[in-house]
Amino acid sequence: MAAASSSLARRAVSWRRLLLSRAFGAAAGPAKRVLVPVANGTEPIEAAATANVLNRAGARVTVSHFPSPTALSLCLQICFFLQLTTVQCVPYCSIGVRALCNFKMLVRYGGMPGSANLRDCKVLEKMVKKHAEEGGLYGAICASPAVALAHWGMLKGLKATCYPSFMEKFPSDVIPVNSRVVVDRNAVASQGPGTSIEFALALVEQLYGKEKMEEVAGPLYVGPQDGAEYTIEELNPVKWKCNGTPQVLVPVANDSEEMEALNLIDILRRVGANVIVASVEDKSQIVTRRHKFNLVADMMLDEAAKMEFDLIVMPGGLLGAEKFASTEKLVDLLKKQAESNKPYGAICASPAHVLEPHGLLKGKKATAFPPMAHLLTDQSHCENRVVIDGNLITSRAPGTATEFAVAIVDKLFGREKALSIAKELIFM
User: Backbone phi, then psi, for 36, in 5-degree steps?
Assistant: First the structure.
């Protein structure tokens, strides 16, 4: 136990130094530019993970709204009733084909009808083909390798993968490979939301090399065996009860971690939970931590506080967590939830900066973002990726966000539903 605590302490110090000195791996010198086309129907987890991870590597990511040149509001109605805008988002008409030489990589997200919307955009097709002819890197995930890249003839003679149910749509001149990520020459392809971080890290490796990829991967705490059946550490198991459709509150703040927030919202809505996204700021639109996506909340926290919830669960992001901790109404909701023996949870910075200081971890086992785990009174289970102790659930980092959400599905809907959604996401 002493050795484990010592190892945890050393790792915490190491990562704290890394976060402060390198700002999650910001690259020296001019940033490499990456163009990311998005459309209505784009898959949110894929969008958040790819932009987030590339930003951590130091890339300058430009998100461009396709296919309509008149869509100047730049508000995307993406999958599962999520609305995103982004402060770095520009309409494609302001980029132009000639400016494409400034980009080192083009990346397309999946999701339907998002992939089809991108495929049908002739301007985008022309841009991508020109980029490839000049030796540029390009990638796609989920349905997009088959629906867009292969349709445009961009994968001829190459090995590629995509979402399993779209594999049969590859033409005969593409070599299909049932793998989570496939890199062949300048093309990178991946399978789905559950492979998004692996996809993004493969893009980082192609842009910056293996050493940079490993540097960026470290603070994400990506699972060593992605694709294997998920496991959770559960103590004092109790049944999470709800009458009818589970009612879930996900508070969000400026600088909330987008990968963690969107995994929770997207996955829980996929399985049928009624997820209320509530802003603790003074307006419904909040700016997320890494890529500065503007997430449009369903309502303000004051309105949500009038409702009853079967689960309250918070994403991380240090500044977002600090805002949660200073929001008296949210803290009161969490305390009422705990006192009523109703489920509540948090990931990354939030267990250490919200739950611990307000006494919501007293007598409970929990985990948190490893560099912050020293703030927990009881650190005995901090090495676990997801910990459930009775009505409390906690997790560690962006790289454990999918496991965290799937574990919640397990508790609210049962193991069968959890395994089903994990397979749908290509998480396992």
Answer: -125, 100
- The token pair that represents 38 in the structure block: 């998005």
| Residue 93: partners with Cβ closer than 8 Å, 6 or more residues away | 69
pTM, rounded to two decimals: 0.87
Tell me 229's DSSP state. P
The contacts found for 178-181 with CB under 8 angstroms, 24 or more apart, are 180/226, 180/227, 180/426
Residue 100 above 70 pLDDT?
no
Answer yes or no: 348 catalytic. yes
Paired tokens of 202:
């493969």
Q: What is the pLDDT of residues 195-235, one digit of tens each?
A: 999 999 999 999 999 999 999 999 999 986 555 667 789 99
Give the distance from CA 308 to its chain's centroid: 27
Residues 6+ apart with CB under 8 A from 309: 247, 248, 249, 276, 333, 337, 342
In Å, how far are 100, 353, 359, 385, 391 from 364, measured between CA atoms? Answer: 53, 15, 10, 16, 10
Q: Is 175 exposed, middle or buried (0-12, 13-18, 19+ CB in 10 A)?
A: middle
Task: Specify the residue for token string 């009733």.
Answer: 81
pLDDT band at 98 (very low <50, low <70, confident <90, very high): very low
The pLDDT score that the predictor gives to residue 78 is 40
Please identify which of the residues 142, 162, 348, 382 carries the catalytic annotation: 348
Per-residue pLDDT tens digits for 17-50 = 444 333 333 444 578 888 888 877 888 889 889 9
Q: How many CB atoms lie within 10 A of CB 302?
A: 11
**pLDDT higher than 50, residue 137:** yes
What's the CA angle centered on 197, arms 408 and 258, to 5 degrees?
60
The chain-wide mean pLDDT, for the chain, equals 85
